[in-house]
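[Meeting: bench + compute handoff]

Bench side (C.D.) handed over the final construct sequence. Compute side (W.E.) agreed to return the predicted structure before the next meeting so the bench team could plan truncations. Sequence as handed over:
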Amino acid sequence: MKRAFTLIELLVVIAIIAILAAILFPVFAQAKEAAKKTACLSNNKNVATALFLYAGDADDMLSQTSWESKVAGFQQPFNPAGKYQIHWTYLLQPYIKNWDIFRCPSDSAPITPKNACANGIADLGQTPGGVMTCDWQAPKYSLIPNYNLMPAHDWNTVSLTNFEAPADLIMTTERRDKTTKGTVIGTHKGLSGFDPSQPCPGVAYVQVTPALAASHLANDTNDDYSIVRAKWDRHTGGANYSYADGHAKYQKLDQTLNPTKFQYGEKWYPAPLAGAGACPP
């Protein structure tokens, strides 16, 4: 006669399984996040390499964050009134040939085009009737450039030869979609470690410190302080960064803002385009 499990024995087995599950599930989750962190770090590294290749083909000049041609004298006839963006992610695509590189696997809210193409990526680079019909950018992306290397559309481009300490100068990192107050952060922007984020010539500005960053993150209800645009705590309290010498690594926010080794640049490199209106005359 076969002996069956008693109720007590079954309850003990179920309890043991529940305890093991409670122990192992967090471990599995941590392992999964570690894999995503590594993939995101690799993406930053690939983007940094592509930026180097792009600059090599453009006389050592990096691109702007976007080219919207709203500035008088810089407007493109195929993009009337600068309605559509020619984004840095589009400019790098010939060197990467993979749109997924621009997205971090941990990002649940990647940036999408303001003006999506009707036929998706098939419309990128196309000008039917001689004009653009949509934004030329990655369909989804998570990475955000440092304005000190890749400024906004109304600032001049910057040469790689300008940088005094490229190994300690952030090129790209991961983007935050909301402030700590829940305010949605504007898309298609860069970030900066300076206040103001894009200082005009002769304007006093400061390098953001960990204490000042904490104040912005705790109290800001918008993204005027562009350090809040970095998703600095996505991976166990830190984020992935690529640097102007082409390498990438994981850092905590206070490490990037250390006054003795400030990673957003020794000075402000870009200059406003003539007639841009970004700075007072």
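W.E. noted at the follow-up: The chain has four helices and eight strands. C.D. will use this when planning the next construct.
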